Amino acid sequence: MRWVGNDAEESSARARRETGSEDSAPKDSADPRSWCAVAATRLGRDQPEAALEAARQAVDREPHGEWGHRLASLALERLGRAREAVDSAQEAVRLAPGSWAARLRLAGALRRIPGRWREAWAEAQKAVRYAPEEPGPHSLSGDLALARGDHRRAAAAYRAVLRRDHDHVGARVNLGLTFLGWEAPDVHHDPAWEVDPAETGQARRALQVWSWQVRGLLAIAMTAVAVAALGFDLHLQAQIGGAVVLGGVLAVTLRQAGKIRIWSHVPAMLGRDLWLSVAVSVAFFVIAAYVVGLATLPEPDTISWAWSGALGLVVFNPVAVGLLWLLVEAWRGRPVKALTEFALASSSRVARRNMDVALWIIAGRAWWGLLVLSVLPVPWIALAALAVPVAMVLVGRRANLRGVVRRDRWLVGALGFLVASAISLAVAGVVPGMARAWQGAWLALLAVAVAFCARAVRARWRGTPGPWRAALTRVELPTGDISPSSDLTDEVRHAVTFSRSVVLSYTGPDGPRSIAVSAVTSVSRSGELRVIAGEEAWEAVERDPRVAIFVGDPRFWAEVTGVAIADNEVLRITPRDVVVREYPGRQARVRT
């Protein structure tokens, strides 16, 4: 901040430094704020090592400057030094506890540390409370909620961002993900748990491997038992051999169980991860079915329903699980609403990728719907298939299909075959005896399935994102504001400390209130004001911590707005905006 009486050239030079237009060493190497401006510029150019060096130069020259510690924290986080980033962010918060930018930085650093999600959430909520008009705190709140799978709270936060910044690409993309019920790759792990994610990941792998090994082993054994008993009339030998295989199941179970060290978290992991729960549950069902199959193993020509069912479950459970996966993945979430959000952010590569996945999900829903219509016994119901072409037209209006043609021709082909199948079904439902129309509808549905499989194989072969939910990606923006903190000049510090004309303005229960302050006890080196005020002011800042201090001086008057925190019988006010007016009214403003 500069007092209005300074000449224009000096004010312009300082503004250039504070906005970070210089990235080399500043001309005034003794000025810590100049070094901060350099660090901010280097962070904007994705040069974290150089930014950290500049931030440390600023901290060395002014250890009480919140801005330098905040920039150092952001640079450390980008360098992957999360714990050091937390330390620097905590120092920034200690120096400026009412700074929303410092709270936001601390929240962003804390979320990188396993088990500190709750602390990160608390800091993000403080940032929201201190600066509700800023999109950054709402965006981080949404990211934290989304990481934990709280889609309702995440959607509310992203909508708050978009009300403040309609073109915020990250919030737009991530809001679309909430409509699809997006899950993080480590969905089994709750970021609020204190346990290391590596341990829950190891437990998940052990459970998955156990399920695959048990199901595979029993499928092979059941097939061998059936062949021996029914093909070679070795009934007793087949039962004995099958029972021995259960020893192998026990060995596999003990081996994988030994790799799990956090059994207390396993039930919660199963509750968070649907497909992990399905894999484990199916394995238990397969073991039970295998035992039933051995117990009811029939003689040749006396096959029972119980044995047939057990054989089918043990041998063909992968097919059943695969069909269940396709069905659930197609019908979970609201892909049309998600597609709308992705389309509004189509300038982003991530948004375009997510748009393609959303279209595949919509195609999957249409495929299942047409499949059901094609097998219903009432032909005229097939007329409902005409809803598919109508839906495709509406979807085409939301998405840029020309871009889809360039990115994924398999998807375009699948959509075309869906329309062809829908028209064939409608014709077959209207015109009796149109067997070829029914056949054409089924062939078109088969072509859609082939297109999906071909697209999936192509993605696996090339190592690129596939046409499934796992390919959905969120946008994670830097969690830190690099704008400068307020800079109280010596004149303002002196006026605030010694003036007898100090007024505190705050929001009371009935609206704005202003009272004369008993005293401003001190101004810290970081610029924090310590004010003695009445009980009503304390209650007011509990509701809304945003306040303003008006100070009169024989030469000028100043307005300092900021955030007040009640602490040890004083209000600690962290400045945010400082306006100095020289009588009769020229002014200069700095905002942080």
From TrEMBL:
<feature type="transmembrane region" description="Helical">
    <location>
        <begin position="437"/>
        <end position="457"/>
    </location>
</feature>
<dbReference type="InterPro" id="IPR011990">
    <property type="entry name" value="TPR-like_helical_dom_sf"/>
</dbReference>
<feature type="transmembrane region" description="Helical">
    <location>
        <begin position="238"/>
        <end position="254"/>
    </location>
</feature>
<feature type="transmembrane region" description="Helical">
    <location>
        <begin position="305"/>
        <end position="328"/>
    </location>
</feature>
<keyword id="KW-0812">Transmembrane</keyword>
<keyword id="KW-1133">Transmembrane helix</keyword>
<protein>
    <submittedName>
        <fullName>Uncharacterized protein</fullName>
    </submittedName>
</protein>
<feature type="transmembrane region" description="Helical">
    <location>
        <begin position="410"/>
        <end position="431"/>
    </location>
</feature>
<feature type="transmembrane region" description="Helical">
    <location>
        <begin position="357"/>
        <end position="374"/>
    </location>
</feature>
<feature type="transmembrane region" description="Helical">
    <location>
        <begin position="214"/>
        <end position="232"/>
    </location>
</feature>
<feature type="transmembrane region" description="Helical">
    <location>
        <begin position="380"/>
        <end position="398"/>
    </location>
</feature>
<feature type="region of interest" description="Disordered">
    <location>
        <begin position="1"/>
        <end position="33"/>
    </location>
</feature>
<feature type="compositionally biased region" description="Basic and acidic residues">
    <location>
        <begin position="11"/>
        <end position="31"/>
    </location>
</feature>
<keyword id="KW-0472">Membrane</keyword>
<feature type="transmembrane region" description="Helical">
    <location>
        <begin position="274"/>
        <end position="293"/>
    </location>
</feature>
